[in-house]
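Our preliminary data section would be incomplete without showing what the modeling component actually yields. Below, a chain of 123 amino acids is followed by its predicted structure, encoded as tokens that our downstream tools consume directly.
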Amino acid sequence: MGDFEVQGLHASKKTLPQKAVKQVSEYIRKNFRKDIKLDDIAEAVKYNKFYICRVFKATTGQTVQNFILELRINNAKALLKRTAMPLTEIVYGCGFSSQAYFCHIFKRKTGKTPLQYRHSADE
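Predicted structure:
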């Protein structure tokens, strides 16, 4: 019986990082349009923020911040392709706090400005 308890405990420790990453990912997906701070994520999922950073990077290969940026950029790309929404609405609707920062990050990630991307999506 002692071996079973130890094996059960060991198995649950193995799944803890995956559980944490899943909870963090879900929280981010639900809240990426808001100003997300690591402290907010940690409080919501009940894990230490340093643990979250370490486990998220080890499990996904990217940082929490990069995951948030990728999610926001992908959402913006979809809106640029599928809607005629003004750029400012897309920027703030995707969780960016400044249009200049959005444009800088968008170009770094896609190689195009948002408007170049929108026009290329029409082709």
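The chain has two domains: 16-64, 68-122. Residues 1-13 have pLDDT under 50 and may be disordered. Preliminary results of this kind motivate Aim 1 of the renewal.
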